[in-house]
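Here's my example:
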Amino acid sequence: MTYEQTLDFLYSQLPMYQRVGKQAYKKDLTNTIKLMEFLDNPQSKFRSVHIAGTNGKGTSAHGIAAILQTAGYKVGLYTSPHLKSFTERIRINGEEVSREFVVDFVERIKPAIEDIHPSFFEITVAMAFDYFAREEVDIAVIETGLGGRLDSTNVITPEVCLITNIGYDHMDMLGDTLEKIAEEKAGIVKEGIPVVVGEKHPDTFTVFEEKANEKNANLILPRPINLSLDEMTPYYLNKNIPGIIATCEVLKNKGFDIKEDHLLPGINNMNSLTGLKGRFHVFSKTPLVIADVSHNADGLKILFDQVKRINKGKLHLIFGTVKDKDLTPIFTLFPADAAIYWTQSSVPRALEVEELAIHGIMHQIEGECFKDVNEAIKRAKEKAQPNDMILVTGSTFVVAEVDGI
């Protein structure tokens, strides 16, 4: 098969959560374990960091990888979902896995696919672990998909775990309270493995304490950290930095040669080092146009706070989302004087723009409708003054379809 045919096979033959929703989510590690056995257990052939959380886990993964790269290590990085290209999910020192490897891998495991019938995510995790093992990375930074306890990535035994924060997202699969969601995230904690908890929340911290005690795992709360970050760095990175640094300190104590002067250069150069996309991504200056993949209330609150601080004119908010999202807490965060442009992505999970507009009207929010995000941007640019800001957000898939990212 060609690369395009291989991707077609993965997308059409295997259920993918980002496209079809919770029917692709498998609350079971059986398939992943079988895939690992078929591949001679690559997950046991490299050292790793495991990251879970509602918000900030992707950014934290990129931050830790960037610091390790700055320290001179060969670093694997597994994150999801991808923004533009499937190969973004699997990187070594910022370089995406080759298309040739993707094709070869799928060909090699076709017998296992026919026997096991794994999900898209299970296949992708197996691909990443096989790639990191074959390339003999010094360490791999692994981000969970959903939850943690039954996430496909949860077959590794890492050097350290990081749980960034807990918020209300994917409640239909992970639970309808913060405690239930925390229990799922805490499932990545392993026997005797240190766990960094990036945020001490009264409703969830007891869950992590109990899990750490059960697993004889050292629980670490990060100390406050102040780094001189670049001006356009996302505010939510500040929230994640203490956990990133604390995780790197654990690695240092385990023999990794990470020095103080690796930290700030790693964080400030994270985008170029690891290829991070879609986080407060500035792709036009006059007017200022920013795209950000924040998609739940906690993430959007921090994003809107930053926008309020730096915006010198009117905000033009371009917003699209998915069908299985509780919009009420999100709509309450919308700046009152913003011009609204509803949009949608092309994935099956996308909430149709007409329906999104109806939800908006029910919350006294009115806006123009655009089937294509780039048409919405074009319209916003026509209406915007030079000192206004245009913000595209609400869904990874909407941001992924923005031209120029």
Notes: Residues 17-25 have pLDDT under 50 and may be disordered.
